[in-house]
Amino acid sequence: MNNIFLVGFSGTGKSEIGPIVSNILSYKFIDLDTEIVKYFNKSIDKIFSEDSEEVFRKKESELLEYYGSSSQLVIATGGGAIIYNDNYELMKSNGFIVCLEATPQTIYNRLTSEDGKNEIRPVLKDNVNIDSITNIKNKRQKYYAKSDWTIHTDNLTPYQSAEEVSKIYKTFVNLDTSKFIQKDMKADLAGIVTYTNGVCPIYSGWDIYKDIPKIFSRLNIQGNLFLISDTNVYSLYGQEVEKYIASTGKQVFSHELEPGEHNKTFDAISNVYSWLAESKAQRRDTIVALGGGVVGDMAGFVAATYNRGLGFIQIPTSLAAMVDASVGGKTAVDLPEGKNLVGAFYQPKVVIADVSTLKSLPHRETMEGWAEAIKHGLILDKQLFEVFENRYEELLNLEPNLTTDVVKRSIQIKAEIVSQDEKETRGIRTLLNYGHTIGHGLEAATGYHQLLHGEAVSIGMMGAAMIGNKMGITDSSILERQLSILKKFDLPISFNNITIESIKSAMSLDKKAVGSSINWVLLSEIGRAEVNSNVDNSVVDSVLEELSS
Predict the structure, then answer these.
(1) Which residues have a catalytic role annotated?
(2) CATH at residue 458
(3) Shortest CA distance to 314 belongs to which of 305, 303, 20, 306?
(4) Among 167, 240, 410, 539, whose Cα sits 20 to 30 Å from the Cα of 434?
């Protein structure tokens, strides 16, 4: 059945966004709460007080079953509808479930505004505050997480949110998702990036390289495969991956790069171009990146530019690449003047992240990867951040189940953001750059030799939090929680032997800059970030001085 079911907490915009989606798709809009009010001829508050919540829930389920059996409807459900398994199964069987998400602060602001007062639900009673919203929402979050897709509405207008609902729905309606996964695969479909010209499925799991032949077969990968790795990674996993690719009957050619960010240069790229030319690579062939973020950036740039575009597959082996660099289609080469200044947006056909490869990472590289995942929790997912706070010892020890779950959730966050703003034209994807302005400045100022990317981002996050704190945007308690978790993961929070002028010079080339202003990503609370271009240079100078140890 071609229905869309909108779920989510009160104040996330279901009743406002639903009619816009129905207009875009020429579907009919049904608001279950409105239908229940019509049936009882009284407000929801009175139904709860004069009849009971049980009566309300029973009618809600009856109407959901009635309308759910139809087609081409956009149905806004009550905030608690999905917590009942029969309701969930009915929605799952009869349409596409989209969860509209927002932070407790956003929900509170909306519910207490003049336009939102009618949305206050009896479950909150007269206790409409951030704590009560957070408590109830936390209890329901595991049910909302069962949705087919999640859209964060905090920084979107209702129309933008409706566009995202419509876009992802059209993608999935026309998508045979069975080709992405099958029962005998260990690989989980962690997320799907939707972009202008297609989709990119992202698989994650523990020990899943043996699923490569099935994934390639399902996605109909054509031509020869040109595997690009670095000398370290190839010695560990190159032959294994080649074996599984070759089992599909395809010819595999391999090229090894020198490892490290300082080798992400045009000289190295030129050598890869020559190798492809000598190997007679054609446009129907596919580049496979096996390695960390540097390999993915370089292989992706080659795929985007050689012969005006070859196919591209990401097989990340570092934590930073799994949760960040491999998802989203950014490819690039560094210049002496700055990081990633030459590049392209070029989406891979598929990403395959075998979490078990993290066991071979040196401690320092594992920790720098956790910096990017911690960032996702800080800017967009308070619950994920709390997992880092409460279960950090298991993550430090790479406990397989929890590590796989956290990697998967981090991938989902990145995929959702990229799907809403593929090329950073709407300001949404910019949120992912939290900590990167100072971080990229530090990397460039040291010639990419002194700090790993995640380490630079860690220092950059401290800098951004300090800037936010000085501007009255980031509370001191947030600053302390961030500081504490970065220390637990052995991440640096300051720098030394780097001149502040060299960092500022590199920051002036930041791609997030608009004119002479830099778009800073700052935390307003755990799980919520904002973009601010009004940061005074004196504040930045002061913070850089404090970060210098």
Answers:
(1) 308, 330, 372, 414, 424, 429, 433, 436, 440, 453
(2) 1.20.1090.10
(3) 303
(4) 167
